[in-house]
Amino acid sequence: MDNKYCPRPDFAREDWFSLNGEWDFEFEEDRKEELEGWIWKTQFSKKILVPFVYQTEKSGIHDSTIHEQVWYRRTFTVPDNMCGKRLFLKFGAVDYKAEVWLNGRFLGEHSGGYTPFEFEITPWMADENTVVLRVTDRPDTAQPRGKQYWKEKGDRCWYVASTGIWQNVWLEAVSGSPITHVKLTPDIDTNTVEAVITVDEYQPEDTMEIEVTYQGRGVKTMEVSLDGYRTRVVIAMKPEDFIDELHYWTPEQPNLYDVSLRLVRGGKLQDHVNTYFGMRKISIEDGRIMLNHKPCYLKMVLDQGYWEESALTAPSDEALRQDILLTKELGFNGARKHQKIEDPRYYYWADKLGLLVWAEMPSGYEFCDREIGNLSREYVEFIMRDYNHPSIIAWVPLNESWGIRKVLVDPAQQNFAVSMYHLTKAMDPGRLVSTNDGWENVKTDIVGIHDYHKEGAGILKYAGTLSGNPESIFPESRRLFAYGTCCDKENSVFMVTEYGGIALCQDTGNGENWGYDRPERSPEDLLRRYRDVTGAIAGIRQISGFCYTQLTDVYQEVNGILNMKHQPKFPCSQMKEINDQIK
Prior knowledge:
Residues 18-140 form the Glycosyl hydrolases family 2 sugar binding domain. By secondary structure, the protein is α/β, with parallel strands linked by helices. The chain has helices at 35-40, 317-329, 344-353, 369-386, 411-427, 456-460, 523-538, 572-580; strands spanning 16-18, 21-27, 46-50, 69-76, 86-91, 94-95, 97-102, 105-111, 117-120, 129-136, 164-165, 169-174, 179-187, 192-199, 207-214, 217-225, 230-236, 257-265, 268-277, 282-285, 288-291, 294-295, 298-303, 334-337, 356-360, 392-396, 398-399, 432-433, 436-437, 446-450, 493-498, 543-549.
């Protein structure tokens, strides 16, 4: 990833310094040594380009062999503009368990391959500093893996593993006591924004200076005394005149309000954080999805976020931006980020460019106490990190009963799935939830249906059942609802959240590559089939939207609209013409 772009534009400080680039690297089994030897080691046999994992070509190593423990090392000096301030070492994501040392001092550890963590390093800084990481990533089916296969060779719709640092690493400097978190909740019905601001240290004289602007114009300025470590502030958002509404956020007009937060103690600035929000509301009304109280038919594409040379890590910030632009050029208004917690800059570009996003938790694959703990903990961190993004309109904690394979009949697995729904709603009552997307549904806002019929007639066969007895529907020969669960027709909607998966014959020639059902001979045949199945879905009155599989090819799964270099297989305008006819 590029070093010139702030890793967290949704929680940005002025003073930061990228530690991406060349690091020393070693597989642990190559050097049998005691722990102290690794911490103080000065010679590693390999170099790796961070933030690309060793399994990828971009890393400079490109080894698909499973190595359960790997080591990283880098020496750095602090830039002059950050000297004399409190310093924090930040990791965007390291898969799976990271243990971190600085100058021989153990800083701490973090488990969870998709969420961020940080350590204050101020007390242990020197003129020249050495950071050492030990990463443990076992082929454990109880840890959230998403599409990372636990064997060396990919199979079906599972792909190469991703071990180690795969998102940005950087330093941040803070003048004094830091702001640690801000949660912004817009309410278009009351024209307000609730801000819950968390600080690391609190003194009774502390104040928070809050400034809200829109396109550089002042909207609201206020100074509040802190109530403690967490302070709740309600910001009244007055329209600019009595005719126009507030500047709502939509895919067509992704209006964003900028927020400046300044923590002051005794007249001295402690910390300054910049963030933003969008005034938007997502809801279900009369069996339809509504955006800002207007009907919003979701036309989405499934996006797994893999690249040919760099796997889960985008090769550049521009690559993330281009994916969103191409998604919109194809006529989709949203993306389901499938089985991946994406880099924060993806959600930033979705906010800025206007794309509706479903945020999905990567699955574990073995129902047990360990999976429950791992999944729940990392899911909470996911929601906390990405709550403020207006582009995110739905959460998906579980997919296709992965990790809860007996949810159809097992009360314990049903209870876990239902608990994930309620956990989501406790943290974020303002967004929608697809609890176990596609298969045996339990308590949910969105009843997701996965149906890979090759013809529209196959999908149409259960259209009438949706308004009658949806519990009797068996798409893909699976029951749509778990036993003992019924459809809440008043407070939920139906969507076809996976379908299509159409490949071209030219891409499936070697026998290992595949798409769903038969491949098509030409792009024209693919588009005819897309028009048929998509038109059938759009013609079902009870369906509130669709999600087509998929945006790009991913290794052996070659059913993308784009190839794995993220290049379109046909002019985007041809698919857009079909999608634009659906309202």
